[in-house]
């Protein structure tokens, strides 16, 4: 992914088209872009935080009405790693913002300066475009704000077939999301992978006050009698609809608009 793709992709979490941001309550997020930076220890993590927090986010904020979440990986297949998640009212909004950010000369100059450091700004990137499920909540800042950045857990459940992926979404919609919340998880979003790795899949995220709260919540969920019945019924109907599961845990970056 080249720099202009990066500028468009990251910024497209917004609701732009040259207008003032719409009221949050009036928006309904239709899709998310998850953009991942894979780094190495050294100058890259600090330089990326400086760039995102002081250059990219302020530029996007001027025209952004959708959610932005910046996450630093705690437990992942590759460390260090930073994930930027942006929400869109439509896919068309992505392309609108892409064009506007690519035309921003100040942002282009700052991005070029970031890229021309003593070492490359990152090792490689990846992106996933995710379609929000009808029952997915909106990403909004907590009120009151948490005392410390929360722990976020991203799960990618790959289904062998589209039929089984639909069954998996059905399970989340009717029961699983509700039971997770009852057991202490804070649902962030529930989506289907549109473009990216491991499709078809259900990609979903929950948040917790800290790792202790995370462990307590999933222990309660795993032992929940209703969940055990729901899982058994789903398996009987659809087979093993989550054949491959990938789990990544993050903390919100201190400069993330949502922590």
TrEMBL record:
Signal peptide stretch: 1-17
Gene3D superfamilies in alphabetical order: 3.30.70.100
| Keywords, alphabetical | Signal
Which residues does the UniProt record annotate as the domain NIPSNAP?
152-237
Q: Which InterPro entries match?
A: Dimeric_a/b-barrel (IPR011008), NIPSNAP (IPR012577)
The record's annotation in Pfam families points to: NIPSNAP
Q: Under which name does UniProt file this protein?
A: NIPSNAP family containing protein
Question: To which species is this protein native?
Answer: Solibacter usitatus (strain Ellin6076)
């Amino acid at each position: 992914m080249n720099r202009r793709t990066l500028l468009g992709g990251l910024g497209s979490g917004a609701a732009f088209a040259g207008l003032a941001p719409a009221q949050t309550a009036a928006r309904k997020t239709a899709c998310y872009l998850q953009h991942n930076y894979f780094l190495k220890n050294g100058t890259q993590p600090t330089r990326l935080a400086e760039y995102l927090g002081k250059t990219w986010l302020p530029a996007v904020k001027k025209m952004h009405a959708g959610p932005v979440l910046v996450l630093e990986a705690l437990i992942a297949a590759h460390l260090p790693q930073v994930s930027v998640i942006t929400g869109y009212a439509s896919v068309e909004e992505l392309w609108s913002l892409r064009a506007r950010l690519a035309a921003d000369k100040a942002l282009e100059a700052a991005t070029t300066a970031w890229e021309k450091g003593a070492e490359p700004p990152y090792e490689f990137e990846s992106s996933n475009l995710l379609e929000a499920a009808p029952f997915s909540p909106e990403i909004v800042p907590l009120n009151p704000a948490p005392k410390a950045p929360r722990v976020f857990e991203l799960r990618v459940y790959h289904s062998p077939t589209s039929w089984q992926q639909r069954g998996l979404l059905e399970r989340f919609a009717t029961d699983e999301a509700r039971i997770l919340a009852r057991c202490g998880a804070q649902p962030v979003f529930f989506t289907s992978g549109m473009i990216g790795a491991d499709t078809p899949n259900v990609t979903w995220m929950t948040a917790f006050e800290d790792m202790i709260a995370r462990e307590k919540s999933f222990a309660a969920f795993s032992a929940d009698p209703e969940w055990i019945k729901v899982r058994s019924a789903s398996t009987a109907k659809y087979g093993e609809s989550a054949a491959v599961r990938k789990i990544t845990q993050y903390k919100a970056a201190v400069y993330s608009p949502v922590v």
